[in-house]
Design a protein that fits this description.
With about 400 residues, the protein is mainly alpha-helical. The protein has two domains: about 30-300, no CATH class; about 300-395, no CATH class. The protein is about 45% helix and about 5% strand. The protein has helices at about 5-15, 100-110, 125-130, 145-160, 180-190, 195-200, 215-225, 240-255, 260-270, 280-290, 295-300, 310-320, 320-325, 330-345, 355-370, 375-390; strands at about 30-35, 45-50, 55-60, 85-90, 95, 300, 395. The strands form three sheets. A three-stranded antiparallel β-sheet has the order 1-3-2, covered by helices on one side. A two-stranded antiparallel ribbon has the order 4-5. Helix 2 (about 100-110) packs across helix 10 and helix 7 (about 215-225) crosses helix 8 (about 240-255). The protein starts with a helix and ends in a 9-residue tail after the last strand.
């Protein structure tokens, strides 16, 4: 997204979504999720049940308006204590290992740019609902096309949205997916809109009902169902909605089969200020596990600067072999010693990310051979600088360790 577009999104959120609305109190919304069991999860006034086991009570507004703006999690966080959770999806037969790390890796990088941007009236497609999709690679083009897509989606989809409660969830509502099909069909009738763009916009209006089915996710499901030959139908406007339904049904059955695990993940990430419906959590996990680059599968979390020298920091330091990456032992030693000298003079660990990681690696080697831990203040400065340069995650996989 351009700087101008980003600035517009920010000002639009502040001026339009968070300002007083006619006929309303003008208050911000606030959600307080708590776990519940099966029969208690029913549609109630002022409440949302995203999926079988989670209830969010909307304290100050009558309908759910999306996650809280600006709650994108702290910039520096340690994930060293996360437990490994593996899930097996029953309908698609996909195995997703280490779900917590994949989910948090994604959220740390992307949550603020789509999920944290709230929606307005749940029955109206706002301009921000279209603009926010830039952050999830909707590639919807320039200003003329954006206007046409917004006006077309609003005209075609708002009448259908009124038949889908804002609190509708995929497991309990629209069992035949008739309304989901009508909503997708209406959206896909708009120029330049097919399933991927449609669901990226519509997920923002029904976050517990409509998953984001981009080319990666829908392609995976159709292949898993043996329906790969139907993918060309997704490009035909009159047939795209019907071609999407098998994938949506399989996604729903996967969600049903791992509802307990997904709710547990949701509760954990809520504690880190990431507010996601189970539909969104499962879609993120399927996407991160199947997208071809493997970016979030291989990403390595950077330890918090507050952590003392110990196994977590040592393993991270060893994930980058400075000897190999920078050519030889002498070059790695020169990088490490020069950065340490500069830190002693200036109090700053200032270098590019490869040199910072090489310096941390060299401190590990120095500590290994001297049997003395690095200076704790220098260690904290290195980790803080790596956090700042990387955003809290570095590309993996880890290099083979040197001992």
């Amino acid at each position: 997204m351009s700087v101008t577009s980003a600035a517009f999104v920010s000002s639009y959120c502040s001026a339009t979504l968070l300002g007083p609305r006619s006929g309303s109190s003008g208050c911000l919304w606030d959600t307080a999720p708590r776990p519940i069991s099966g029969r208690r999860a029913r549609f109630r006034a002022r409440r949302l049940a995203p999926v079988g086991g989670t209830l969010s009570e909307v304290r100050r507004c009558p309908t759910y308006r999306g996650p809280r703006l600006g709650h994108a999690g702290p910039l520096v966080r340690s994930h060293a204590t996360l437990e490994s959770m593996d899930i097996q999806l029953p309908a698609s037969n996909l195995s997703i290992p280490d779900c917590e790390r994949q989910l948090l890796s994604f959220c740390d990088q992307e949550y603020a740019y789509y999920d944290a941007i709230p929606s307005g009236d749940p029955h109206r497609i706002d301009v921000i609902d279209v603009l926010a999709t830039f952050a999830v690679n909707s590639r919807i083009g320039g200003a003329d096309r954006i206007r046409a897509i917004h006006r077309g989606i609003a005209t075609k989809c708002e009448p259908v949205l009124r038949h889908i409660p804002p609190e509708a969830n995929l497991l309990e509502f629209d069992h035949e997916l008739a309304l989901a099909r009508d909503l997708l069909d209406a959206a896909c009738s708009v120029p330049w809109v097919l399933t991927a763009v449609a669901t990226k916009i519509l997920h923002r209006k029904r976050r517990a009902f409509m998953p984001m089915l981009d080319s990666v996710v829908i392609g995976f499901y159709l292949d898993a169902l043996g329906l790969g030959k139907t993918k060309p139908l997704l490009q035909a406007k009159a047939k795209a909605a019907d071609a999407t339904l098998p994938a949506l049904r399989a996604f729903r059955e996967d969600l049903r089969g791992v509802a307990d695990e997904i709710n547990a993940l949701g509760a954990k990430v809520e504690g880190l200020r990431y507010f996601l419906t189970p539909v969104r959590i499962l879609e993120i996990l399927v996407w991160t596990q199947t997208e071809p680059r493997g970016y979030y599968r291989n990403a390595i979390p950077v330890p918090s600067p507050d952590l003392p020298w110990g196994q977590d920091v040592i393993e991270f330091a060893m994930s980058y072999n400075g000897y190999v990456r920078h050519g030889d032992t002498d070059t790695a030693a020169e990088i490490g010693n020069d950065l340490l000298d500069r830190w002693r003079k200036t109090g700053r660990a200032d270098a590019d990310l490869p040199k910072l990681r090489c310096a941390l690696f060299f401190e590990q080697r120095r500590a290994h051979h001297s049997d003395q831990p690095p200076d704790s203040q220098y260690l904290a400065a290195l980790l803080a600088a790596i956090h700042q340069r990387s955003g809290g995650w570095v590309d993996g996989p880890a290099d083979p360790p040197v001992w």
